[in-house]
Amino acid sequence: MAMAAAAKRIMHVESTTTTITPSSSSSYVPASSLTSMPLEILLRVLAPLHPQDWARVAQACTVLRAACISALSTLTFLDLKNAGLALDDECFTVLSNRLGSRLRRLEVDCWHLSCGVLQNLPEGIEELALCGCDHHSNELLAHVADRTHLSLRRFAWSGFGGKVSAAGFENIAHKCRKLTSFMIDSGVTMDVNSVVRAVASNCPSLSELSAYNLSTDTFVYMRKCKVRLKRLRHKRRHGGALPVADSSLLLLIGMCPLLEELHLVDKAEFDGSGDVTDIGLLALADRALTLRTLKLKLAVSSSAERCSEVAVMELASVCKLLTHVELSNFKRLSDPPVYELIQRCPKLVELTLDGTPITDASLDLLASHSKSLRSISIKGCKKLSEAGLKALGQCGTLGAVNAGQAHGVTDAVVSALCEGNLSLKSLVLSCGNLSDAALKAIAMCTQMEELALHGCSRISNNGLRLLSAGCVWMRYISLSYCDHLSDYGVVQLARGCPRLVKVRLDGCRLLSNPSVRALCELCPKLRHLSLQYCVKLSDNVFQHLLSAPSIRIVDLGRAKLTMIGIETYQQQRPFVELFIDGRPQANLSQIATDM
Fold first, then answer.
1. Distance from C-alpha of 328 to C-alpha of 331, rounded to nearest angstrom
2. Which InterPro entries does the entry link to (predicted)?
3. Architecture of the domain defined by 350-485
4. Which of 224, 261, 453, 502 has the fewest Cβ atoms within 10 Å of its own Cβ atom?
């Protein structure tokens, strides 16, 4: 249960709460003893518990209920990102009044909140992260600016709709001049360049920036404002934005002499805007001696990468503080520079080499030398075999493995990975050869939270039953095109994994309405449900979706759905993004034509 749900239960416990009394067969402490116990002692008793457990404690007696309410005022950090329907305006208002002046960090899912309720935001917050802001306006940002203008240092925003404009963020930049970290992920209509320029102009201590589609001119403007970033995360979604190229690296190195984290992602088609050559990487090696995180992801279709292995080896030999490295889609990156990275950077925690021509030799060395490694991604590496992937089972410390579209994945590989890394929380594979034996091995990893297995036609309902019995903490699962799965297996999954947030079952043609009903009724935190090309779904599925309080994105197969059903659901849930076989529901005329 999320903290908000727990808080709501604390707030609404009836005055006739049960008083614990002693009996001949129990050793419960009488309520009178608790009454005489100092509050400080009770707070120390509650401190080791997770805040979500306070609601249960609060139901024991009125004394413990009062202690739990007092405990809320001692919190310095509160995570409400997964609160779901429990976090409504009433709950947030009461909770805000009880949190106290010690709260410094707050993370909130605003999906079920109105814009006006943030006028109750506790003052003194230094770090604020807002997500689910898909139907809000600048009013919400105005309340943030008014309530936190004296204290706010770190601000993060995620929202992809509504009536929020650049002016709302510019207001925060003008009032919250102590900002050191600004992170924004918003809709394509947002003028992000204007926002970032306002932050650069008004926040002289800015050292961390996360944004997308910033132009080269915006970075030049930031340099004129004497912004000295230590951490930069930037994603290029379309042409015209800063490319991953030599020119970009040279610009960033010049304006950020103490760079600790550089994360550049290129999602756009290559448009000839620049190359990555030895010049860029060697300049990075020469100037960025403070680097701890370096992530460069070229566009998949890019032909711009022309750097040699020598440059990567030089980078590794100089940047010895690196703990997180990504060099994705570097087509010339083979084993020798990877050897250098592994040997020169003994504290590697995360390594991503997607789309590179590395071989089993790199994985063998990695397994024997990188004892701090927690995450490895080798997606799309075509020169790997079963032997190399099995070697990862020797790491013992891995929490995340992504080998999607990599060669060599078998049931034996999955068994070796899971037996050797029982703390695995994230596993991504895509291989038609995997069977229920793989799911049985994965079930040993009881902390598993994210699992993606695509196109595994040998997986059956029995394997799904075994998986759901072992991986009760699962939050994200994708079993697209596992076409032997039926409603029975999905019902077992929903029963065993009630914490599911995102489920993808595209192309599972045996699934029908009962699968949706089970997921909506048994998984209260479900936000994203994708069942593309599931042709047995009918209009009754919309009644099940109405019972899912946290659902935000739905993608359904269209075969038996009618326009009346689609339009009716949209009217009842206007903020839910509805897709039909991957197409936005707003394109009703095209859908009607296809039907």
1. 8
2. F-box-like_dom_sf, F-box_dom, FBXL15_LRR, Leu-rich_rpt_Cys-con_subtyp, LRR_dom_sf
3. Alpha-Beta Horseshoe (3.80)
4. 224
